[in-house]
Amino acid sequence: MRFELYGTDGAAVFPEMITSYELVSETDSACDGLRLNFCSEELPPEICILKAFSDREIVFNGFCDMQKITAGGGFYTCFIYARSSAALLVDNEALPSQYNCPTARQLWFTNARELGFGCDLPEIYSENSYLVSKGTSCYGAINDFVRAVYGAPVYATPENVLDVYRESSSVKRLKNYPLLSLSCVINRSELISDIDYKINSSDNYRYHFKSEFVRARGIRRKRLYNLSALPLWQREITAAEKITNSLSEYCSVIAELSGDCDFRLCDKVSVDFDGQDYSGTYFVSEMVKSMGKNGEKTTLVLKKKIDGELVNYVA
User: Fold this and answer.
1) Residues 248-272: pLDDT tens digits?
2) By CB distance 3.0 to 4.6 Å, which of 53, 87, 176, 227 could disulfide with 2?
3) Are the CB atoms for 80 and 7 separated by under 8 Å?
4) Are 288 and 22 in contact (CB under 8 A)?
């Protein structure tokens, strides 16, 4: 992987003595995170922009959050932590608003266009109102609407264009890659079986969601929410998401591969595991590309889509 750094004065730095790096990408995180360690004979300037390339393709474009320079032994040891350009959307607060019959493009225009982002979001809209509450980030204002209507999270490409994650049409077989280790994780601690919510502040929590999938595993974990401030159509979606989001952490496979492998977030991956329960088709939800003293490595966190068997009722 090749890196380009740019200082606040516009000066460019092209580090050659890379000692380690780690690039972390997640479907549930707005920003990619990059940690870079390198050595330099000259004192680097204050870095504000960092770009990373795999072959000739740009894979990271972002801003430096932290920089540490240590002098010793006749050269400088440098550490940089950067977030991808979506940090601009995360760090800026959206204007609290209620949109009537909004579109994804309208939310992009209001919350991201002036920050320099292009738009490749799906052409979706709602015939209802949509509420952006105080304290919501510009990213949250766009992402919450798109996830509710379209069902997929928003991300910013390295070219600063907003798009949504889409599952690949083809399936990659994990056994075709140089596998170092494979593990399966069952996490029951995050599962939620029941959601009780109310749509009016003066009412009781008499609206309910329950997950038959979670209950069948002997888990009873309830959460209560006051959703009266949200428009009607957002209430059920928000309540149901509390359960479906917890299900995403239930079953995952962690695969460590040698080298810089050609995976992307939301790629479909076929896993052959010793044990029929863990074999099947997963999707890439997290990817870590790293390099250290043992060379380059790609770590994948693969997850399954689980039907929570949700039941909505009033009591």
Assistant:
1) 889 899 999 999 998 999 999 999 8
2) 53
3) no
4) yes
